[in-house]
Amino acid sequence: MGSHDTDSTNPAASLPAPATQAGRDGLAAVLARPDRAVIALDFDGTLAPIVPDPDQARAHPEAVPVLAELAPKVAAVAVVTGRPAGVAVRNGGFAGVPGLEHLVVLGHYGAERWDAATGAVTAPAPHPGVAAVRAELPGFLDRIGAWRGTWTEEKGRSLAVHTRRAEDPQAAYDLLREPLAELAARHGLIVEPGRMVLELRPPGMDKGVALTEYVRARGAASVLYAGDDLGDLPAFAAVEKLRADGVPGLLVCSGSSEVTELSERADLVVPGPAGVVELLRNLADALP
Known about the structure:
Elements lengths: L20 H12 L4 E5 L21 H8 L5 E5 L4 H8 L11 E4 L4 E4 L4 E3 L5 H16 L7 E4 L4 E4 L6 H18 L3 E5 L2 E5 L5 H12 L3 E6 L5 H12 L4 E6 L5 H6 L2 E3 L1 H15 L2
Parallel strand pairs: 1-2, 1-10, 2-3, 10-11, 11-12
Antiparallel strand pairs: 3-4, 4-5, 6-7, 7-9, 8-9
């Protein structure tokens, strides 16, 4: 994240300078009116390091303490993830944490919502295409000769086919992408590409829609969004649209050489979840 100014008279001096004017304006707006700022964060790759088995993903050990320090100083903190909301809550360790009483987790790209205040998950009925794909997928993968090591993650409202454990992860990914898109389309679903994963899920909701609705509902005057993967591009686009509509925003990429599309659009690139935690800690220290 670069060298930091250690001027103790100005806590904001420890914050890195965004590379763009729009990003600098977004950060300045968060600092000027934290009570009207929304801090929104992806989970995997942003708050939690990427691991071969998603079931084993856990938030960076300092993520929850830092969020608990930051949350009371801003309008709202939201975790926006493709995971089921309950899984993100469990893997993040977000429940019952002092300071996070008003945390919201928008799961399944916003189709589910968990509120710390109630501990409840709210969601619409599942899309029927998911059950149809669930039944068809095992035989489908066998027929097209998926590489050994490819495996399917059950996500309730979607299904994710992972290739990170395959003998040749990129070749398996490339082999599967078009056939899975055709399978999804037959059942009214779409494919969400990610870092060695292809997720079959219902259309109509993405992180951009979820983020925009949440920011508008909170009446936010600024927004910070941090993400690391292709599924975060709609959220980046949402922040860009909010900026065009007069709501300053800061786009942060949790650095990854696998997804250059995100780092090229970010105002600020930090070195993975540890860098995100450091940024959030410095932000919390800079706020009254």
